[in-house]
Design a protein that fits this description.
By secondary structure, the protein is an alpha/beta fold. The protein has three helices and five strands.
Length: 125
C-alpha cells in the first residue's frame, strides 16, 4: 500500500513580505521557492478610519494571494517576524478549504530563499 504524500508548505512572512516554499512535483521532490507575495501597506491617509479599513483589506488580499499559491494544504509551517504568522494561521483556520491543515509556527529572522527551503525541509523531516 502506498502512503499518501502530504502537501507540505512553509512560509516566511512579516506584515509586508512572504516567501512560500513547497515541494516540486507531486512525488515528494525537493522543497523549492514557489513564490513571493508583497503587501505594500496602506497609502498615507489623513483619515484614520479609512487607513485602518484599507490596511485590513490589504492584509486580507495579502493572505489570499499567499494561500492561492498553496492549494490543498495538509501541513504548513509559518515562520518570520511580528504577528503576521498568527494572523495568517487564524485566516487559514477560518477558511473552509484550509481549516483542516495542520499549522505550526516559529520565529526567525529573514533568510535567503535557499536557506528557507532547507529550514522547511528540516522541519518536516
Amino acid at each position: 500500500m502506498s502512503e499518501k504524500i502530504k502537501k507540505q508548505f512553509g512560509v516566511w512572512m512579516d506584515s509586508h513580505n512572504a516567501t512560500i516554499v513547497g515541494k516540486e512535483g507531486t512525488e515528494g521532490g525537493e522543497f523549492i521557492v514557489l513564490g513571493h507575495v508583497n503587501n505594500p501597506g496602506p497609502d498615507n491617509n489623513s483619515n484614520e478610519k479609512t487607513s485602518n479599513n484599507q490596511e485590513i483589506g490589504l492584509t486580507q488580499k495579502f493572505f489570499k494571494e499567499i494561500a492561492a499559491i498553496m492549494p490543498n494544504i495538509d501541513e504548513i509551517h509559518l515562520t518570520g517576524t511580528g504577528q503576521a504568522q498568527e494572523q495568517f494561521m487564524k485566516f487559514l483556520a477560518e477558511t473552509p478549504q484550509y481549516k483542516n491543515a495542520v499549522s505550526t509556527e516559529s520565529t526567525s529572522n529573514k533568510m535567503s530563499d535557499e536557506n528557507l527551503a532547507i529550514f522547511i525541509m528540516k522541519h518536516f523531516n
